[in-house]
Automatic annotation (TrEMBL):
<keyword id="KW-0694">RNA-binding</keyword>
<dbReference type="InterPro" id="IPR022973">
    <property type="entry name" value="Ribosomal_uL10_bac"/>
</dbReference>
<dbReference type="InterPro" id="IPR043141">
    <property type="entry name" value="Ribosomal_uL10-like_sf"/>
</dbReference>
<keyword id="KW-0689">Ribosomal protein</keyword>
<keyword id="KW-0687">Ribonucleoprotein</keyword>
<comment type="similarity">
    <text>Belongs to the universal ribosomal protein uL10 family.</text>
</comment>
<feature type="region of interest" description="Disordered">
    <location>
        <begin position="159"/>
        <end position="189"/>
    </location>
</feature>
<protein>
    <recommendedName>
        <fullName>Large ribosomal subunit protein uL10</fullName>
    </recommendedName>
</protein>
<dbReference type="Pfam" id="PF00466">
    <property type="entry name" value="Ribosomal_L10"/>
</dbReference>
<dbReference type="GO" id="GO:0005840">
    <property type="term" value="C:ribosome"/>
</dbReference>
<keyword id="KW-0699">rRNA-binding</keyword>
<comment type="function">
    <text>Forms part of the ribosomal stalk, playing a central role in the interaction of the ribosome with GTP-bound translation factors.</text>
</comment>
<comment type="subunit">
    <text>Part of the ribosomal stalk of the 50S ribosomal subunit. The N-terminus interacts with L11 and the large rRNA to form the base of the stalk. The C-terminus forms an elongated spine to which L12 dimers bind in a sequential fashion forming a multimeric L10(L12)X complex.</text>
</comment>
<dbReference type="InterPro" id="IPR001790">
    <property type="entry name" value="Ribosomal_uL10"/>
</dbReference>
<dbReference type="InterPro" id="IPR002363">
    <property type="entry name" value="Ribosomal_uL10_CS_bac"/>
</dbReference>
<feature type="compositionally biased region" description="Low complexity">
    <location>
        <begin position="163"/>
        <end position="189"/>
    </location>
</feature>
<dbReference type="InterPro" id="IPR047865">
    <property type="entry name" value="Ribosomal_uL10_bac_type"/>
</dbReference>
Length: 189
């Protein structure tokens, strides 16, 4: 018989699944409370790491349309519900699992695709979103920078051929303005 507490717990877990871009199922047997706290801190603000009941999680996963956790819900289970950068959260989980072998990454879901433990590790091996955006910005900036250098080199070459000074006109104007008052003062005396 479903109690109101269990019904609300299933709804909360189902909502967490629906609101997340990724979810990673882990077994935390043998980890201390301090280690779990450290793991939650390393996952950041956009990831909710929750200890869950297996039966209720199975029901919630079915309600959310997730089948990746079928047959995996046994033992002490916790799920990382990732709302932000899935790559960064997967890196945090795999790095923590390397230093704390009690944490076992079982399976996961990323944007509707089922992942096994190797898939979660492959997700963690990707570059972060910020790094990828910086790389794209660098690729877009390179042609503009090269165009500016080419235009400046063309300007210098044209100035050399015409015999005009290579300095930009904006820098010459202040120097000429300073010399003019000195020349006027010399003619007045």
């Amino acid at each position: 018989m479903a109690t109101p507490t269990k019904v609300s717990a299933v709804e909360e877990i189902a909502n967490d699944f629906k609101d997340s871009t990724a979810a990673v199922l882990t077994e935390y047997r043998g980890l201390t409370v301090a280690q779990l706290k450290e793991l939650r801190r390393s996952l950041g603000q956009d990831t909710k790491y929750s200890v869950v009941k297996n039966t209720l999680t199975g029901i919630a996963a079915k309600e959310a349309g997730i089948d990746a956790f079928d047959g995996q819900l046994s033992g002490p289970t916790a799920i990382a519900f990732i709302k932000g950068d899935a790559v960064a959260a997967a890196k945090s989980l795999t790095d923590f699992a390397k230093t704390n072998p009690q944490l076992i990454i079982k399976t996961g879901v990323f944007e509707g695709n089922n992942l096994d433990a190797a898939g979660v590790a492959a997700l963690a091996a990707l570059e972060s979103r910020e790094f990828q955006l910086a790389r794209v910005a660098g690729v877009l900036k390179a042609p503009m920078s090269m165009l500016a250098r080419t235009a400046d080199a063309l300007r210098v070459k044209l100035e050399e051929e015409s015999g005009a000074p290579a300095a930009p006109a904006a820098e010459e104007a202040p120097a000429a303005a300073e010399e003019a008052p000195a020349a006027e003062a010399a003619t007045e005396e």
